[in-house]
Amino acid sequence: MRVVQAANYPALPASAAVSSALDISLDWLRNAVEALSYPRHFLKQPHSNRRAAEWIEDQFRSFGYRVQRQGAYYNLVTRPPGNQPVTLVGAHFDSKPETPGADDNASAVVAMLAAARAISAHAPAAPVVFVAFNREEEGLIGSTDFVANFLPDGGLSVEKAHVLEMLGYADARPDTQKVPRGLPIRLLRDQGDFVAILGNRQSKRLVDLVMRTAKSYTPELPALGLKIGCGLENRFAHLRRSDHAPFWDAKIPTVMWTDTAEFRNPHYHQPSDTPETLDYLFLQRVTQLLIATILGK
User: Fold this and answer.
1) Which of 52, 114, 186, 267 has a CA 20 to 30 Å removed from the CA of 127?
2) Rounded CA separation 121/228 (Å)
3) Which of 113-127, 131-145, 173-187 has the least mean pLDDT?
4) What's the rounded Cα separation, in Å, for the pair 90 and 19?
5) 2-296: which CATH topology?
6) Are residues 191 and 224 in contact, defined by beta-carbon separation less than 8 angstroms?
């Protein structure tokens, strides 16, 4: 395993067209997180879970997307233009039963929605698919169903995927970032103010792309990448704890974007995971990096 940081990468030539798509409102992000922050577990709060799904579907449709409800768990899939291979962007929308889930995972859903809005406005022909997964908190049930039962015959050829998992919490004070016990890595900073990008052997180049894009478009956002080789993602459970894992198992180049969850955020899986605990400037910059990465390819 190797930790890399965007600051050490060469910058890509910045595109004016890409830069024009990065105007993301802090108020829009905050309001969207607040709209989605309530307990919404699939089994424990079925009505709230369905309410969340319908709200996300309405958001996609308001941006001009065709949306398909996939499987028994109400995954939501936008349909791309044309038949070419696609970039997939996904995030789960369910929460733990008794937590409003502002960071986990409203922040990532809102980043995905902001990216969908920007792509629709600035590059509507881009081959990008957005997927809202359900039941992540119950063992990745929704994304596993999507990869196993939808992708083989669903008419989508996924070239690469970005899976978003908690993107709203940051703390720039020293010693606020922890490393999972037993994980053989040394972080390059101890402040919990960076976005982490995890990739396995199939997705190392995608990690590099995100790092170069960060250097070019969001240099004020610290970005670290973890390159995992030799199948080590299967030896450390912490590396497989979100919806990227089924994509890794299917050998699809996929990276997970995260603020590192409980290794930074003290409100993880707690009733205190509320909108006011998030850093919306951090979320804005991560969202800008996501959009630039999608558009810059």
Assistant:
1) 52
2) 35
3) 173-187
4) 22
5) Aminopeptidase (3.40.630)
6) no
